[in-house]
Design brief:
97 residues, alpha+beta, 4 helices, globular
Amino acid sequence: MKFESLTPSTRQTKRFKIVFSEPKKIIHFGQRGGNTYIDHKDDRKRENYLKRHMVNEDWSEVNPGSLSAFLLWGPSSDLRTNLTSFLRKYGITTNDT
């Protein structure tokens, strides 16, 4: 799988859209208007979000749940830093590599 882009979502209720190629895959994720760790940087809210969602979501594969958990609620409050870690974690290449 290859990373192509991360942009604002074109869907009214979603915050971001990520595009992969080989195979082509488009995933919309995050709640538009919702505050996440990249917005508020609140460690307690981050911890509570992750605990609440880890029981019902499969973070072992690339899907809206894992994207939200690792990009919006990841270890850094910087989206680009979390994206880089996510791509490395899942073995996803970029056009640069």
